[in-house]
Amino acid sequence: MFTGIIEDVGMVKSISDSKISISTKLNDIKIGDSIAVNGVCLTAAIVGGEGFSADYSPQTDRLTNLTFLRAQSFVNLESALTLSKKLGGHIVTGHVDAMAKIESVKKLDRFYAMRFYIDETKYLVDKGSIAIDGISLTIANISGNIFEVFIIPQTYENTILKYRKVGDLVNIETDVLAKYVEKFIVKENADAKVYKALKENGFL
Q: What secondary structure letter does DSSP report for 81?
C-alpha cells in the first residue's frame, strides 16, 4: 500500500525481459520490499549499487507504461506505507487500472493544468482522488472522457510530470473506495434510492 507522495525520481539503468534495474536515492531498501514505480507495485529482488532490480509480469508490461521505459528513463518512486509514515496523499494500492493519454499541459500563474483522455470513466469522481504515474492528485473537472487536474509547482518539479508531453501515456489508478462502493452497494442489490443518491452525487 502507498500514499501517492513521490519520494524520489529514479533513473532506469536497464530494462529487458520483464526485469528492470533502477538507480535511486531511496535508502534502506531491502530484498522483498514493495516499491511503486510510476504507480506500479514492484518487489525489490536485488538491492545494491545505489539502486534495486525487480521483475514484472507480461500483464504489467502490456497494461502499464513500463513497456515504454528505456535505459535513462526517469520514473516516480515511492516506498511502501508503514505505520510510522504519514498518509499525506490517499490510499494507493499500486495496481494500475488503465493508461490515459495527455491531451494538454498548460502553465498557469501558480499551477499547471493537465488534461487527460481515458477510455473508462466510471470510477472517476469530480473532486475525487486519482493516482497518475503514482502521484496522488485531485480531479478538478470531468467532461466526457476528459479529466483535468491542477498541479502545484512542488509536485510538478519533483516528479516526472515535468518531463511529460502531450501524447504521452500515464498510469492511472482510480480511488479504491469507488470500487468498494460498486462492489458492496451496487452489485449486492442495494436499495434503489441509495444507488440513485450515490449516482446523483458523483460517486458512481
A: P
Looking at residue 73, the DSSP 8-state letter turns out to be -
User: How many angstroms separate the CA atoms of 182 and 123, rounded?
Assistant: 9
Place of cell 525487480: 54
Dump strand ranges (E) for the chain. 8-16, 19-23, 34-37, 40-47, 51-55, 74-79, 98-107, 112-117, 129-132, 135-143, 146-151, 169-174
Fold of 98-175: Elongation Factor Tu (Ef-tu); domain 3 (2.40.30)
* pLDDT tens column, 15-58: 999 999 999 999 889 999 999 999 999 999 999 989 999 999 99
Question: Cell match 494500492: residue?
Answer: 93
Neighbouring CB atoms inside 10 A of 192's CB total 8
pLDDT, tens only, 131-142: 999 999 999 999
pTM score of the predicted model: 0.87
At residue 163, φ and ψ (nearest 5 deg) are: -95, -10
CATH of the domain spanning 8-79, picked from 2.40.30.20, 3.30.70.20, 3.40.50.1970, 1.10.8.100: 2.40.30.20
